[in-house]
Design a protein that fits this description.
The chain is an alpha+beta fold and 214 residues long. The protein contains nine helices and four strands; from the N terminus they run E-H-E-H-E-E-H-H-H-H-H-H-H. A four-stranded mixed sheet has the order 2-1-3-4, covered by helices on one side. Helix 4 packs antiparallel against helix 6, helix 4 runs parallel beside helix 7 and helix 7 packs across helix 8.
Length: 214
Amino acid sequence: MSEKLVLHDYWRSSSAYRVRIALNLKGLSYDRVPHDLLAGEQRTASYVAIAPQGLVPAIEVNGHVLTQSVAIIEWLDERFPQPPLLPADAEGKAIARAMAAVIAADVQPLQNLRVLKALKARFGADQDSIDDWVRYWIGEGFAALEAMVARHGKGFCHGDHPGLADCLLIPQMFNADRFHMDFAAYPSLSAVRARCEALPPFADAHPSRQREAA
């Protein structure tokens, strides 16, 4: 690989965590540039100049800046096709993408840091109410994913090897832990999680393994 990959990251961001997993599954080396979201470092003029939304993750490569975690993961899969993160057939691709969208579009945006801050600052929600809000929306998404994975999984979210949907599921389950989510109703998701977290690409991407976590 001739490209130098630079990942703009925050150790506890589930979106950035997804991309770390995908990079590791592809066996790619990359440099990390951490941005402390709690300190607002993602909103500095220098970072917004390259990533206009002021969000992580972003990847710099060949003079380009790629943003949005799912778009980055799909780019990685096109640019570095082995091992594949999407099924080979059109129907399988659509199903795997739908699984990913449950998290990326319907769950995670409702419990990311800026939304939770707004619930508290603008709408007066206390921490118990915020935690209930997060658990409700995670539960809605996980109920749908549980059925999808039970139908299409063969050890992983879709099929018998880790892919796009697994890259999103594992960080979302990590987030759910932070809000004391009960996983009893999601045995298929829990089984996928255990299998994934035993693999080095997932283990090495875990927030606790990033240097800022120390």
